């Protein structure tokens, strides 16, 4: 009887919420029409899956959130009432339009790689006349939310959405693996390569110094607060030794990591290290960076840079749950899925830019699918989370604090100010 009463309350609440949201349908329809007309990309897995019952805030991605948000505000004010407010949450990065004390939509900056257009870069799905973020990008965002402890109440729903997107992801992988050459791959990605198609497979040269240095670095990681992900985590789980680069998440900034690793390398070896910073180009994750670590191997009077390690900075701004095996910290299975998908996304970007040998690309993708198949069955959102590390930052609060110490800018616009 108690469960029946609770179910009835939930049904009544959902009915009331739907009625309330539906009262704003004309505004939502205008926002969607604006996005369609300007070919802006909407991020909405429920709409992608045809299970959107009503709209909340519409999440829009664009290369120019400032101009687009102001243009939409002007249209809304002219067509409807003058109670709309444009809020600048982060200058040139994040804007939101509110009406009647609720957020109707947000405009989010999307960074592009080199000279890509928005559509070449993302390959949006056109659904019912609307450009939508593709399933592959959505699933990265969903896994990010699935390991975020502040989203705990939403975990069951998020996991269900991921399960519904999985068939689309599997179909996407099969299509890529069935392609025989880069011309066909170019058609699939709806873009043209900016680099030359490489017909010959590039044989990977494994330097003897690599395995020696890798073992030394793994020994250090075993005693540190780095959390392993991707192929490194898979190899620890399966007791495999190979020539893949080490991949970890750090809670330090790269300057501290570099100083610590340089000091350790000076103590244990005669090799120096250098690093370069790479953006991940993942929509919605503007804080995410990858630092690529190289060892310097002397060859005659020169040095050869050998890629040996990737460090992700995620613990600078979010909490990561982990477990321990053989002394190593391993990110939980949900987190592993996110980072494996990120690696695949980076390989797709590399393929678009450089036109990598198709066989090399396929082999890399098959390896990552093997990792996905290993970690996916182990996901259990109800597992006890015993170990968290990192720093959780409320991005919006951080941006507001940062704005106060920077150059002042107007934080909101009313209809008559546009």
Defining traits:
alpha+beta; 5-stranded mixed β-sheet; 14 helices; 418 residues
Structure in words:
The chain has about 425 residues and is an alpha+beta fold. The chain has a domain at about 175-245 and about 310-385. Helices cover about 45% and strands about 20% of the residues. It is built from 14 helices and 16 strands. It has helices at about 1-20, 25-35, 45-50, 65-80, 120, 135-145, 155-180, 180-190, 210-220, 230-240, 255-270, 335-355, 360-375, 395-405, and strands spanning about 40-45, 60, 85-90, 95-100, 100-110, 125, 130, 225-230, 245-250, 270-280, 290-300, 300-310, 320-325, 330, 390, 410-415. An 8-stranded mixed β-sheet has the order 6-7-1-2-5-4-3-16, sandwiched between helices. It has a 5-stranded mixed β-sheet with strand order 8-9-12-11-10. Helix 6 runs antiparallel to helix 12 and helix 12 runs antiparallel to helix 13 (about 360-375). The radius of gyration is 24 Å and the shape is globular. Mean pLDDT is about 85; it is low at about 190-200.
């Amino acid at each position: 009887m108690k469960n029946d009463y609770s179910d009835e309350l939930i049904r009544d609440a959902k009915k009331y919420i739907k009625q309330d949201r539906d009262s704003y349908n004309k505004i939502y329809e205008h926002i969607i029409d604006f996005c369609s007309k300007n070919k802006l990309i909407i991020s909405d897995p429920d709409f992608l899956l045809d299970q959107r019952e009503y709209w909340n805030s519409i999440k829009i991605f664009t290369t120019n959130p400032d101009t687009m948000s102001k243009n939409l505000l002007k249209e809304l004010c002219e067509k409807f009432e003058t109670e709309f407010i444009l809020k600048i949450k982060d200058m040139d990065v994040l804007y939101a339009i509110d009406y009647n004390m609720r957020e109707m939509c947000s405009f989010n900056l999307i960074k592009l790689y080199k000279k890509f257009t928005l559509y070449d870069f993302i390959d949006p799905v056109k659904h019912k006349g609307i450009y939508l973020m593709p399933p592959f990008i959505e699933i990265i965002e969903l896994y990010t939310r699935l390991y975020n402890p502040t989203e705990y109440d939403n975990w069951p729903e998020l996991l269900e959405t991921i399960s519904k997107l999985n068939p689309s992801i599997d179909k996407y992988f099969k299509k890529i693996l069935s392609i025989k050459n880069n011309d066909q791959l170019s058609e699939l990605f709806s873009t043209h390569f900016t680099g030359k198609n490489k017909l010959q497979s590039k044989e990977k040269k494994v330097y003897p110094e690599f395995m020696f240095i890798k073992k030394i670095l793994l020994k250090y990681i075993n005693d540190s607060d780095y959390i392993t992900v991707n192929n490194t985590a898979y190899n620890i789980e399966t007791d495999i030794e190979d020539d893949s680069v080490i991949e970890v998440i750090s809670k330090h900034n790269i300057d501290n990591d570099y100083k610590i690793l340089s000091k350790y390398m000076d103590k244990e070896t005669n090799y120096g290290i250098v690093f370069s910073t790479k953006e991940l180009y993942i929509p919605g994750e503007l804080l995410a960076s990858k630092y690529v670590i190289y060892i310097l191997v002397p060859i005659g009077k020169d040095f050869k840079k050998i890629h040996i390690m990737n460090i992700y900075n995620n613990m600078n701004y979010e909490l990561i749950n982990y477990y321990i095996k053989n002394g190593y910290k391993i990110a939980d299975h949900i987190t592993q899925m996110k980072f494996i998908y990120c690696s695949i996304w980076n390989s797709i970007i590399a393929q678009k830019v450089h036109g990598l040998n198709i066989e090399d690309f396929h082999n890399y993708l098959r390896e990552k699918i093997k990792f996905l198949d290993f970690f996916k069955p182990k996901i259990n959102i109800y597992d006890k989370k015993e170990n968290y590390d990192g720093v959780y930052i409320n991005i919006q609060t951080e941006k507001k604090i940062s704005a106060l110490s920077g150059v002042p800018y107007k934080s909101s616009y009313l209809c008559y100010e546009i």
